[in-house]
Amino acid sequence: MKRGYGEPPSASYSSSQLKRKWNSFDESSSFADESTRKARKVADHYSARSNQTLEEREASPIIHLKKLNNWVR
């Protein structure tokens, strides 16, 4: 039996067990939707940013912190 696909209700399952089983499937589905929504928001943010030239990036006030962070990594 695959996860998420229940067997037909039988005497071996109580109604609370079936409800819990289907609720856990719904929760994992909503988790995927939430994850997809967050990924879409991040992608939209970076898509909306304009491309900068090397000179513009070097003029950034935090460029030295970024370089230090990359060096530490």
From TrEMBL:
Q: Which UniProt keywords apply?
A: Methyltransferase, Transferase
Keyword Transferase included in the entry's annotation: yes
**Record's Pfam families?**
mRNA_G-N7_MeTrfase (PF03291)
GO terms for MF: methyltransferase activity
Does the keyword section mention Transferase?
yes
Query: Which GO terms fall under biological process for this protein?
Result: methylation
Limits of the MRNA cap 0 methyltransferase domain = 34-73
Query: Which chain regions cross the lipid bilayer?
Result: none
Q: Which domain of life is it from?
A: Eukaryota
Q: Where is the composition biased (Basic and acidic residues)?
A: 34-47
Region (Disordered) location: 1-20, 26-58
Please report the name of this protein according to its UniProt entry: mRNA cap guanine-N7 methyltransferase 1
Q: Which species is this record about? A: Dendrobium catenatum
